[in-house]
Amino acid sequence: MTGSDYPTLTASTIAARVKDGDSSPVDVVRASFGRARAVGAGPDGLNAILWSDEDESVREAERLRGQLEQGSKAGRFAGVPIAVKDNYATLGLPTTCGSRILAGYISPFEATCVTRLREDGAIIVAKTNMDEFAMGSSTENSAYGPTRNPIDIRRVPGGSSGGSAAAVAAGIVPIALGSETGGSVRQPASFCGIVGVKPTYGRISRYGLVAFASSLDHVSAFARNVDDSALALEVMAGADQRDSTSADVPVPSYRSQFVSRATAVRPLEGVTVGVPREYFPESLDQGIRTLCDRSIEHFRALGAKVRDVSLPHTDLAIPAYYIIAPAEASSNLARYEGVRYGARVDSVDGLRGMYEATRSLGFGPEVTRRIILGTYVLSAGYYDAYYRRAQAVRSLIARDFAQVFADGVDVLFTPTAPSTAFPIGAITDPYEMYLSDIFTVTANLAGIPAMSIPIGRDAGLPVGGQILAKHFGESVMFRAAYALEESLGEDAHR
Amino acid sequence: MSEAYEMVVGLEVHVQLKTRSKAFCGCSTDFGAPPNVNTCPVCLALPGSLPVLNEQAVELATRAAVALGCTVNRRSVFARKNYFYPDLPKGFQISQYDEPLATGGALTIASADGTARKIGITRLHLEEDAGKSIHDRYSGVTAIDLNRSGVPLIEIVSEPDMRSSSEAGGYLRALRQTLQYLDVSDVSMEEGSLRVDANVSARRRGEKKLGTKTEVKNMNSFSGVERALDYEFARQCAILDRGERVTQETLLWDAARGEARVSRSKEESHDYRYFPEPDLRPLILDQAWINGVKAKLPELPEARKKRFVDDLKLAPDEVEKLTAHPDLADYFEALASASGDVRSSANWVMGELLAAVNARGGTIAHFPVRPHDLGLLLKMIQDGVVSHAAAKRIFALMAESGKTAAQVAHDEGLLKVGDDPALTGWIDEVIAEHPDEAKRYLAGEKKLQGVLVGFVMRKSGGRADPKRVNQLLASRASPS
């Protein structure tokens, strides 16, 4: 039976209880909705969830219970309530991307990753708040109001996947889908004190993930521990013929490669951890630096070799990112013009007037800013100076990583974000907000796997440590993250 | 006035490929379905959908490229061409830009003086079609049909190598014929599966530099292209004669009025903001696969014409007619093989068959009398079982009824009549009806025999065996 311990349970625990008949999926789903009401209500509510339908979720739990009673095999996420960022196409619940322009839009098809979660027994209980079209680092750019950080409700949860991060951190769900284009899962994971993982580009199908910047977009997940985050990848990863950029690479069992302190004195024996100096600038917050240093000491104690390395083109990542991402976005968001679906604002000024009115009223200021920026950098006469050069820089950044990994480094360790969660409304300058992604955009540009795990608190606020690996190097990334998590123990949250 | 100037023409031809499904999704490409039925999340550009390349489209495009002598690039890249229009659901068209599928080919045409002219082909690339805007169906609104959205196209861009409207027409006819032989497209301008935009400029004869060009669009037939080019060339010549400059702009041909007007659309001021399509990987083709497409090419028009002249000893003008469409040439070859008679097969195909197909208004591929059936009829002529005149009637009835030649001949009593009592009866009647001619013939005026045979044939409804009629008549005449 699921009792008041629900908010602390991991997905694998819930699935095991459901499988063994110790918990009913219906009770689990009701507990999730109960928790959502408890933390979501009132003016101080989190505003993590945009859309949900308790009756339908309960019906789905009942169907699952019936199937299990009939002897159906329990999936790896049997009865696990999962929340999904509002930029994944889902059946039943709206898919608005946190935007007015898609208000009320319900997709007739479902994202591949969501289907895979459901096929393994998960029950989708909510669509979560986000920065409009995933453009932002604080979830303040939602047309449906900002999400609050469960650790400190005066602060942002990070973004753009802030609703999903808050839902996991607040115990509404053990796992939630976020999406990443430049760090939109790792940064909020860091701000909310949970685990966030972005796999290799192509590892999980993007079919059904509403595009922001196609070459940078990644299906990503939040969990409360490393084990659950690895399980989420195992369930969702693998080729999909609906996404030409998905990779036909076998999906290993990440969790079977974890080495625990319980069985090995030096669980990371043979693993080399690189510490890139560009991620520890003079200006780095002292509290964050201290916590990173402590984690590095843990790595040494776990048997890993620690080595200083350099990724010389790191400082070019933000400028390159803010050319490539808006360029692709300007094209990806052209389809929202009011002709076929979503909001339409008619105008006396004919077709052009309808386009302008619909898009001006439908998009918020940050989305508008990026569409204009992206349109500009792709324009005739500017393409070579901006887009082509940014792509060249992107290659250099990828090469930096490739060289370090070819040189014997298995994983890199860095801070996830340059700060802890900041107060709602504190950052008004867009460029200052963009710098929030300074340590995370590189992995999106290079397409390598990266994750953030809690490594302690600074002035009471969570700090995340980032672990990166080479393409399809998720196994060693998870192994290092698992060992560090186990080694830090309760220190990860204080 | 325009004798002082030379016309320079380059053509951009869009051709719909004959694939079962669309370029980037599984929707049917069937023409004529109710509006918006052949659509899915991908070709409707619903949020979260992604394109997946249709391999059959790549194969057909490669076949066309190879046949046109292009170099097929081992690596080509899809690009987004961005512009807003209600029948373009994504707000961009997936096309190819700086790395196209194929480059550098040529098409040989016959110029006015009969010599062969090579027209260079700059590039051939793959792209998707837009949907259709229907402005005249509902009052006050434009309706959008997205059945065509995402149908695969190839764009074939020529060099500015044509020097007259008739050369442009010749290029288009040769291109259409080649694509028909390749079976890659229906190439019908009427149905929109072949569309032509023309770039035209005028320059003083002897001048090497190209003049300022204009683009002419909206032609709906090959002759329309020729007329539009002549119109626009004359307009440019007049401008140049006045010492003014031609403005680079887009004109729309109005076939009804026979004039081209400057397009008010902002089309040419568009900046398409091309960039590589991030949702599709670069198209990498294996050289062995390209070679395989080349090896499997069907016989092309030039090769077929040469074979018809060399092997079948047909005259060049006959060969042009017989090879005009691959289905016609196929029909002819099958008929020649079934009947064993090249000469009469050629005559029948160019005469009775084409006339019948045109009269029916269908295509040769759907004509009910197949080569094998017609071959049996030709054999009956050869065997003397039916007369030539009767054969024409039999053929018409075969097309109507779907019966075999033998059945029709039997049912309609069109088999040759060779038995003497019947023939003697008709001869007696003819002699009685034409006493004057009969008397003179019987008296020895032999040249009248043909006339009398003709009367007998007519009386018999074409069934009388003319050979035997001649013999019988001759036996009655006085020896001279």
Radius of gyration of chain A: 21 Å
Estimate the global geometry of chain B from the Cα principal axes: elongated
Number of strands of chain B: 16
Structural class of chain A: alpha/beta
* Major β-sheet profile of chain A: 11 strands, mixed
Order of helices and strands of chain A: HHEHEHEHEHEEHEHEHHHHEHHEEH
Query: Between the first and last Cα atoms of chain A, what is the distance in angstroms?
Result: 31 Å
How confident overall, as mean pLDDT of chain A? 96
Instruction: Give me the side-by-side strand order of the main sheet of chain A.
Output: 1-3-2-4-6-5-10-11-9-7-8
Question: Please, how many helices of chain A?
Answer: 15
Strand order of the largest sheet of chain B: 2-6-7-10-1-11-12-13-14
Which range does the strand content of chain A fall in? 5-15%
Most extensive interface, chain pair and sizes:
A-B, 44 and 28 residues
Average residue-wise pLDDT of chain B: 92
Kindly report how far apart the N and C termini of chain B lie.
72 Å
Note down, in words, how this protein is organized.
The complex is a heterodimer of chains A (494) and B (480). Chain A is an alpha/beta fold. Chain A is 37% helix and 13% strand. In chain A, strands 1-3-2-4-6-5-10-11-9-7-8 form an 11-stranded mixed beta sheet, sandwiched between helices. The longest helix of chain A is centred in the C-terminal third of the chain and has 23 residues. The two termini of chain A are 31 Å apart. Chain B has 480 residues and is of the alpha+beta class. Chain B contains 15 helices and 16 strands. In chain B, helix 7 packs parallel to helix 9 and helix 12 crosses helix 13. In chain B, 40% of the residues are buried. The model of chain B has no long low-confidence stretch (mean pLDDT 92). At the A-B interface, helix 9 of A face loops of B.
